[in-house]
Amino acid sequence: MELLGVRLIGFNLETGYKVLLTIGLVLVLWLVRSIARGMLGKVDASGDRASRINFWARQAVSLLVAALAVIGFVSIWFDKPANLTTAVGLVTAGLAFALQKVVTSLAGYFIILRGATFSVGDRITMGGVRGDVVALGFFQTTIMEMGQPPAVQTADPAVWVQSRQFTGRIVTVANSKIFDEPVYNYTREFPFIWEEMRLPIAYRDDRAKVEEILLDAAKAHAVKLADLDADTLHRVETKFGVTAADFEPKVYWRITDNWVELTVRFLTPERGVRSIKDAMAREVLAKLEESGIGIASATFEITALPRMQASLSS
Length: 314
What we know:
Elements: E1 2-3, E2 6-7, H1 13-41, H2 48-77, H3 81-98, H4 100-114, E3 123-126, E4 129-136, E5 140-146, E6 166-174, E7 184-185, E8 192-201, H5 207-221, H6 230-240, E9 250-255, E10 260-269, H7 273-291
Antiparallel strand pairs: 1-2, 3-4, 3-7, 4-5, 5-6, 8-10, 9-10
Helix pairs in contact: 1-2, 5-7
């Protein structure tokens, strides 16, 4: 085939026909994908169950379109078995050498789906990033980043929000990370987390009163055993080995050199923890003031000072 008097090597009428078929295939698949996504976008996904169904439907559409694209491309360009075998061998060798990360990320995508590691809307920690999953692609997972508690504020990258609330940054993490690091899921099957609040109390103060105050605050604001339906409680007990007693707030004592540390352990939903602890802290401080009990702090006794000399000049 010639173009402006120049002969194009390897390009003939058959090749041109295949190029046109490929372009047509891409346009048709793009149109099918857009229509399917548009229909899914009109479905009400406000509920948790509806949101998960919508997520899996979107993944099914993406996989179907990808499968049709591969089948169509192979059918158009490799209609002869000999050509197909040669092409598969070359492509496999090239991928194994040059696209290791891409192939691993694609494998991670299927592992995430097959193992139900997480889905859109789950709160996870993956690749050192904690937040809510907002999108899952073939190669990357998109996360709405959350802050870190003060104990890990020095983690890399630095995070300025000192609690589990959104920072506003959107982070993309390669799916291949699931093979290198553990994935922490805060919401999969067990939508609760245990939290703690610690108070140092001087030995001279009424520690039993402080324990009562902490328990009252936890019972008022934390998840109550009575609020859990029987099915959820039974599933948690049988699958995770958690007993009903583990849901009740409890105060633990620890003796230190300077004070008695009282720690109240309680159950909270996976979201809204900061608001719960804020309400508890306000209530606890108010009741401590009413009872005349203070929070202990470290004190230092100065036993000697360096000698100082002063002189007056006229």
